Amino acid sequence: MSVSEQTAAPAGAVPEGAAHVAHDATTPAHHTSTGLSNEKLAMWLFLGSECLLFGGLISTFLLYRTREVTAGPPVGDIYDIPFTSVSSFVLLMSSLTMVLALSSIQRADHRRARTWLLTTALLGATFVAGQVYEFTTFVREGLGYTTNLQGSAFYTLTGFHGVHVTLGILMLLSLFVMSLRGRLPSGRAETVEIVGLYWHFVDIVWIIIFTLVYLIPA
Amino acid sequence: MSATTVTRRRHRRRLLPRPWFLAVASLVLLAGCASDAPQDMLQPEGSFARTLDNLFNPIFWVAVLVFVVVEGLIVYAIVKWRYRGDADDGVADAGEMPAQLHGNTRLEIGWTILPALVLAGVAVFTVPVVFELNAEPAKGEALEVDVTGAQFWWGYEYPSQPDFGITDGIVTANELHIPAGQRVYLTLRSVDVIHSFWAPKLNGKRDVVPGRVHNWLLEADEPGVYSGQCAEFCGVSHANMRLKVVAHDATSWDAWVEDMQEEPVEPVSGLAAEGFELFQQRGCSGCHVVEGAYDEVAEDAPAAPDLTHLFSRDCFAGCIYDLNDRNELEAWLRDPQRKAGSKMVVGQLTEADIDALYAYLETLE
Amino acid sequence: MALTEERPPLELAAGDEPVRNPLGAFTRPSSSYGWRSWLTTVDHKKIGILYGATAMVFFALGGLEALLIRAQLAQPNGQVLDPQVYNQMFTMHGTTMVFLVIMPMLAAFSNYLIPLMIGARDVAFPRLNALSYWVFLFGGLFLYSSFFLGGAPDGGWFNYAPLSGVAYSPGHGIDFWTLGLQITGIASLLGAVNLITTCLNMRAPGMTLLRMPVFVWMALVAQFLLLFAIPVITVALFLLMFDRLFGANFFNVEAGADPLLWQHLFWIFGHPEVYILVLPAFGIVSDVIPTFARKPLFGYPFMVFSGIAIGFMGWGVWAHHMFASGIGPVSVAAFSLSTMFIAVPTGVKIFNWIGTLWKGKLIFTTAMLFAVALVSQFTIGGLSGVMHSVAPHDTQQTDTYFIVAHFHYVLFGGSMFGIFAGIYYWWPKIFGHKLSERIGKAHFWMMFVGFNLTFGPMHIVGLQGMPRRTATYPEGMGWDLMNLLETIGSFLIAISFLMWVYNVAVSRKNPHAGADPWDGRTLEWATSSPPPAHNFDVEPTVEHLDDWWHRKYGEDEQGRPVRRERFTYLSRVDEASRLAGGDEPDVDVSAIHLPSPSYWPIVLAIGLPLIAYGLIFTYWLAALGGVIIIAGAFGLGLEPSVDPDAGHGDHGDHGPDEGHDQELAEVGAASGGDDDEEAS
What we know:
heterotrimer; A: mainly alpha; disordered N terminus; C: mainly alpha
């Protein structure tokens, strides 16, 4: 078991709020060959794999968006760019609050950390809600999942991203609950950092999707 | 411990295959190469297939050379440096150590560069041929045929081309007729899944992909019949989606074209006339076109071969049955499912029905 | 866990409360022996054995399918199988051998050997490791259950669209295929993350990257390929699944879709997959051959870098599977060139193996026979591969038996022979006794003859124009004799496999082989056979490539190795091994703590096939599966890696820890969460 690296700060050991600036504890570097903790390395590897997953889905969409549709509207005709820009901005802001959450927990400011974690989750939820609204609008305008090629490709790609955001929200809420129960001392700030890596990745993917799928005309 | 090894009884074990095995193996190889195989890609009978073969041959022999050298080195090493003592009780007792060679950078760079050079040579000859085979012939230079792949048969349409004597367009199936010594430019389409058109002695294969239009070239040097088949897995009867290419000399080509452009005569009396009625009653005409008599098929009918000149052909149903054998066609009419996955549905026919239908079909020459 | 001696012993700090299992559904399992321990184990060695045993069972099933195929093709117009069943057989044969035999077999070796070879106590995430195995097992069983639930998939292991769509394959077979492969894909992905992290992070002090055994290197490259290839096929499987289950249009030609999209996605995965299947086997023989040539590997850096080069170049050759697909002459020319040049690093490997044999003292044990056969047979597969790269002529070769011959020389003559070399080589390490060498050699020769008799003639019928995937062929094509020989050969292979099974059965009574029966070179031979749960009593400090060899041998003035009078094993060993000159370390192993067994991996894994059945039959089952997965993910994530209740101060091999070391809940949750999304 890897994870031996977390030993320096036993779970639940540090009373919350204690000024426990545990730099040594949060950098478990000297225990692994690379200096990165196993968990962080694993998350990087996983995200590398995810790049190819989104790459495949984005390529599929780009291939099919230039094709003539046989039924229903082409997806390019029903984009609501201002709306999606706002929800993209919301998601982008959640990356900022994620950073703030991490820095708070590293400073052992748990109250603020929880606030930021919750804010991040809420911003993410706002984005997902926006996506649900967008989908229902599109369906009302005649583009269902099975209507045409572009519909299938669009909903699969953006829906898949939405599932990623949703999972991120679940993780953030789990962190929030753990913190409430005192199970997230600043010694385990790396946990937050790793969830943050995932969260930033999902944000960056959205920036790419927004640019390639929405902004650049077919 | 090395002393014990030296005195240990030596027994040789046979490591190489016995000579009789090698002899049998080479006999088998010869038998394989010598036999008559109608789809042998190493015996090209047309210019394109020959271009491919000419490219393949030297590369094959280079590969054989590399094979002999590499396997020779392995066998040499085995024979020369095999430890002949008994190592079963402990590898560590195998006596004196060989020299501990860790590598030789110059040698290794050498055997990195050498294959790269050989392959560069192969590449120089390969690339131009890729483009040559994809070249589109000038209009009128090649006979144009539209090929349709369908589960599990081939359809051919010859658009009107006065240069080749075709003024009215020709539709046929399974047997592709071409003039020998002439280029043929195929346009490939599929109505269902992916197929692949392949007549090995005339050219390589090209996939027939639904939603796409592909082109492919053929040429036969001499008149003759060339065997081929669908080469991309296309479902339950993939194995039964065969084809023939029939190459004609100039006179027989003209005769074939003329025959194919004549409409068959509608039978007015006798068994054939009964069959003509049955052809519609039994729903045959819902899918099969007979020019001049049954020109329209049902809207959602599965693709089915044009029967206008059925009896000008030698085979049917993906070229797996002999049309000259009356029993084959009768068996087919009795049960089209004798070929798995066949889309033909006829229901129950009496023997009298079958005789009548046969009599009618026979008139479609 | 990378416990080092210099670390202070782990103790419960004052005021520390041990973390309880928060979901409390199960009492924590504690047994380390008996059949139950296999269900809950997180020990990389046991998981490796589970992987290997499962893969060999699937090998028997895939082999049975192959025999049926060969029986059908023994003569023209064969009547053994009807075409529908024939198509199921070759689909399942290919899918089984690739996804359920060779991949897990290499996972077995990687799991068992990587920690031992790099001097670690376990893999980076032992419970995720258990999870990968159970997910793989349930994925495989799910796929095979299709035989009893309406028919197995019959679209080929490549399942080209649109034949794989509902319109042309209305049964459930292909649904089983897409869902089953997604499940095994999750297993592979988890395994890849885990094993890469292990290789990069868990190396013993001094085990620099360029001191890692070649097997570890090749397994590492293969795991990186998996990491990036699995998501690509996952995308393809998603699209096909959405088409089939929810009416999407990705491969619906009437809606304007392009069937070549499937081919590109499939082969972008499929070609790296070939190297995933063969590189670890290369690694195995790169460790076996030096041991039995009594010489170091010739050109270790070249071997490593050529493996890495193959890993990179493997991404740039996929369209050589599509030379006849109509992708346009520019693409064809480009992929033709890239394919030719991937032969260069492969050739380097062949020559370096020959360099290792050269002037060695070649001891032909069964393992060595299999290893040398790999070198020689892979050469044949490589040369026919170069012939395919000549794109114009590949339009003749592709989809014929010439290709079938080629990839069986690569994957059977290469990977499987490498796997058998590994089995005979590491058997004494894993089980403590050797397999019988006498039966082993008979097994080898039978398999060698059977293999070449089966697949050699396929080159000939292929060039004579026999297409693959055909359920039957007419008389008069000149293929009869060769097909008959191939069928005979395939039954010889079956006999040889039974000889191996017999060997396994009778060899249980063989005497203990000792820690180092082959005078090995790498660290796994420095510990007892089988190794203790914690692998090494003392963590090795590595100073050389082939460190164990250098611990045993010094050099005389001419640079020849001379066995040292005394050297030290890395754990307590049996008496015979001590008599061979090795001392034992004298350390207290009670401070070594290993993660405790857990029920959660198997519980979580069982949710995945439930979701898959649910998607096919009724969504209620899928909902149940989803609940199990979420519960499992939280259970796994929040459960402390080491059971706080398990006997304090227990000084056994499985010394439990005090519960400091939690695998991060979130990492567990993240990967668990990913599971549900990939399966939904």
